[in-house]
């Protein structure tokens, strides 16, 4: 699967602009963007990562893609191939190791 190309998006700006985010190639469908903080007590609102699922309509393969939220660089921090297709509309959330351990007590 090719790397999705991400361009800086207007949501990072306080002012209106014509900047936007695009994903290439055609057929690569991003889903469920999630922001994860890099540092717990950072004052910068974009100090973290955007994590999202992609599904390639041509190959039927799904990935988890990670990009740097501060730079919105077109070079992904990581792309993880998944063994199964992630359905459209699938929701995800992030939990810490501590939260998992707390749930294991029940």
TrEMBL record:
Transmembrane segments: none annotated. One of its GO terms (biological process) is carotene catabolic process. It is an enzyme of class 1 (oxidoreductase). One of its GO terms (cellular component) is chloroplast stroma. It comes from Deinandra increscens subsp. villosa. It comes from the Eukaryota. This is carotenoid 9,10-dioxygenase. Its cofactor is Fe(2+). The lineage of its organism: Eukaryota, Viridiplantae, Streptophyta, Embryophyta, Tracheophyta.
């Amino acid at each position: 699967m090719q790397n999705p190309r991400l361009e800086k998006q207007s949501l990072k700006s306080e002012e209106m602009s014509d900047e936007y985010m695009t994903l290439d190639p055609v057929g690569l469908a991003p889903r469920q963007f999630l922001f994860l903080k890099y540092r717990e007590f950072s004052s910068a609102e974009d100090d973290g990562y955007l994590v999202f699922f992609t599904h390639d309509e041509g190959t039927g393969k799904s990935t988890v893609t990670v990009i740097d939220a501060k730079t919105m660089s077109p070079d992904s921090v990581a792309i993880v191939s998944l063994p199964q297709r992630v359905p459209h509309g699938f929701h995800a959330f992030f939990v810490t190791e501590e939260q998992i351990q707390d749930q294991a007590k029940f």
